Every structure is written in C-alpha cells, then in structure tokens.
C-alpha cells in the first residue's frame, strides 16, 4: 500500500489534533504570548512547520519532544517560529525625535561627570532598534564618543533574530524608511552573493561595535529568574513587544523594567502600548508625539539644550534638484484608509491575514518567500492598494526595481491619495536619477501630507506622521533627491 503524502497524514487543523490545546497552553506559559489565545489557526500553522521539519505526526508527539531533556534547541526553533519580529531602522519617527531632542541630550548632560551611558533594547528582534540607537548616540556625542563608555544591549527571546542582529546585515526591507544618502552613510552596500542574491546593506563597524546581543526572556523579569544584565540602565526601550502579552504580564514586566532604571532614567514602550496602570510605578512624561516613563520622583527640570536637528531621512547635501514642470494636478486628499484597504467586499480578513503573513515573513528576513506568497495570491493584479504597496517594497528588497515601480504605481492607481506610495516611488525614482519624475512623486507626497492634521499617522507609514513625512519630502525636494 502506498503511504499517503506527509501533508495528508498530518493533522490538517488544530481541531483534528487532540494534543494541540496542551501544546498551546505550554507555549503561552513559556513565552507569555497570550496573543495566540484566540488565534488557533495561526499557531497551528506555525507549529505544523516545526512538525514537518521534525518529522513528527502531531502536537502530542511534538510536546513530548519539547519536554524531552534535549528539547531546548527545539524550543528555541519554535520560539523563533512563533515570535513576530517586525522591526526596521528608526521605527516610529516621533520616538526617535524624542530620543534625539530630549531624552538622550538629557542623559548626556546628567551623566557628563561619569561619561557612562547604559541602554537596553528589550525585545530587539533583528537589531534595527539598538543599531538605530547606536547611530543616534554617535551622532549626538560626535568627537566625544571615545571618551564615553556606552553600552547598548539588545536582547530577545528569538535566537534566530539575534543571529541576524549580530550579523548586522540587512535587506532594504529593514531600511525602508531611509533614503539612499542615509543608507550609504550608515551602511556599506554589499554585492550579491550566494545566500544574498540581491545584495544587502552591512552596518558600518563603528555602529556595529557599539551594540552587543544576548538571549533573554522578558517573562523571567517577573518570576525572578532573569539574569542580572549588569548595573541599572539609563534608558530602556521595550517597544512593540508588550502587545503580545496578557495585561498581568505587561504590568509585571513594566514594573520590573522600571526597577532596572537608574534614578532619572527613561523607559520608552511602543506608541500603542502605554497604559494608565503604569503610573503606579513610573512617572509618565508627555513628549511631542509620544509618552515616556521615568522612575517615580524624578525631577523633571529644564530639558538639556537640543542639538542640531537630526532627521533620519534627510539627505546629505546632494546636487541641486530641478523642480518638475509642469506640475502634475494635485492628487485627491487621502481617504481615511486604515493599514490596508480591502477592496472587494467580504475579502477584508483575507487581505489583512495575507498582509500579516507577508510582513511576518519579510521581518524574519524571508523576503523571497514573502514575495512568492504575494505573487501567488495577487500576481501583480491585486485590488488592495496596501498589498500592492508591500509588493513594491518586497520587490525593492529583492532588487526587482522595475516590478517595484509597477507595484507602487499600481497602488497609486488604486488609491491616488496613498502618501507612502508616492513617497517610496519618489525615493525609487531618485535612486535611478529620474529627477523630474521623482520630484513629481515627492511633491505629491508633500502636498497630500500637508493636507492632513500634522499628527496624523500615515497608513502603511509604520508610525510616521504627516508632519514628519512632509518635512522629509520637503528636504528632499529642496536639496534634491540623490541620484
Ligand atoms: C515586533 S518585534 C519588536 C522589535 C523592536 N522592539 C521594534 O519595535 O522594532 C517583537 C520582538 O519581541 C520579541 N519577544 C517576544 N516575546 C518575548 C519574550 N518573552 N522575551 C523577549 N523577547 C520577546 C520577539 O522575538 C520579537 O523579536
């Protein structure tokens, strides 16, 4: 008798797999990811990949493997599979502006006598966050950097994410908010090679050296099993991690992070994560576009003088730029579109799920897989502008510039008010020296962004506000997008 194919023999859904509930409970207890409490399909899908790799038939056998004395490596593989590592450089511009203009100058002034700064990026994923901090700290300390002892520690549960972080090599996906001059200032462009067929960007050693990485489970902060991680920190970032945890865990983690701050230190959590409950242990401080936390009793005092403006997207004096003639008719104001705008009625969850999966793959460095998935699903003909936009970003990551342009234009055909698509198209065209077209696209982005309330967070802008995008588009238009 012929054996049925693997995929038929394995439980197709969690409902067919009696061991799934116990496995799920164990996974949530170990990782804190109550995010999966109501996402059985998603978790089962992730687990099934591990079952296939391990050659195991079901969750009962898999749980036995995990609980085996040698199950540590399999836990690490499963944790890497189920964690969501979305990250990119200078994520959430308002917070980086607060770091540049207030938090870091404040700390630098307060620690000037001991010249020591200790920074922790907790839940750092593949390293874009601690490396962005390294870039910022170096920019602020300038020539004085060698006289300071700066520690930037990145920790994460996922060993796979940490391995990528240590390699400090990124695809355009992680650099998607940076224009070419900043990319070249902070990274070296690496040619294509086996395993990296589309080239990559290697962070310059001067920044890479400033960050070290360790595996650390945030839940151990609550149960007391956490390693010491050295003296208290001046600044802790724990962003876009807490959203996956149960409120009880969130409170426990935030409280414990507060206890690891130096007096006068700062804690930044994700822009969507603040909670009034945190005021029991920490002092919230409102800053433009964000909230930060400080140990209770911190004297707020006068902020240290802000240094020269630092805009992650601002180019270094590129050649003069020819404005477009004649200008294109202005696009309509952007519709109040959420993260993705599903067009065909009834397909909303499908588009949202597809987008989530695509971002998950891309954030895990699997942009080629994400690209194939999007091709299989929409094949360049999608009717969802958000999906076409990501199709464009993925194509850029894979060096498929012509397809990227087509996809971004496709997104704009579906939604002429799509600010980020105009902006990314402008950056792409500028890189190719197509200055007039680039200026047209950037001008569209500028005018659309100016038509919105300045604090509006742009759809698919990964936290960028209309004001910030307008500033960047204006800077590129006046000084000229580099060819
Ligand atoms: C969405 S990423 C955020 C990355 C970065 N902080 C940012 O905002 O760009 C969330 C990260 O938290 C990590 N994570 C999830 N659960 C964790 C835990 N229990 N302990 C430590 N890190 C965890 C994941 O592995 C993932 O890399």
By CATH's scheme, which homologous superfamily of the largest domain applies?
Vaccinia Virus protein VP39
Number of helix segments? 19
Examine the secondary-structure arrangement and name the CATH architecture of the largest domain: 3-Layer(aba) Sandwich
Biggest sheet, in brief?
5 strands, parallel
> What's the average pLDDT?
84
How many domains? 3
Based on the model shown, name its key terms.
3-stranded antiparallel sheet, 5-stranded parallel sheet, about 45% helix, 3 domains, alpha/beta, about 475 residues
What secondary-structure arrangement, pairings included, does this model have?
Layout: H1 6-9, H2 20-31, H3 40-54, H4 59-67, H5 72-82, H6 93-110, E1 116-122, H7 128-141, E2 149-156, H8 159-167, E3 169-170, H9 180-186, E4 187-190, E5 200-203, H10 205-208, E6 211-215, H11 220-223, E7 233-238, H12 247-259, E8 261-269, E9 282-287, E10 290-295, H13 348-363, H14 367-378, H15 385-397, H16 401-414, H17 419-431, H18 435-450, H19 466-479
Parallel strand pairs: 1-2, 1-7, 2-6, 7-8
Antiparallel strand pairs: 3-5, 4-5, 9-10
Bound molecules: S-adenosylmethionine.
S-adenosylmethionine binds at residues 31-32, 83-87, 91, 123-125, 129, 156-158, 161, 216-219, 239-241, 244.
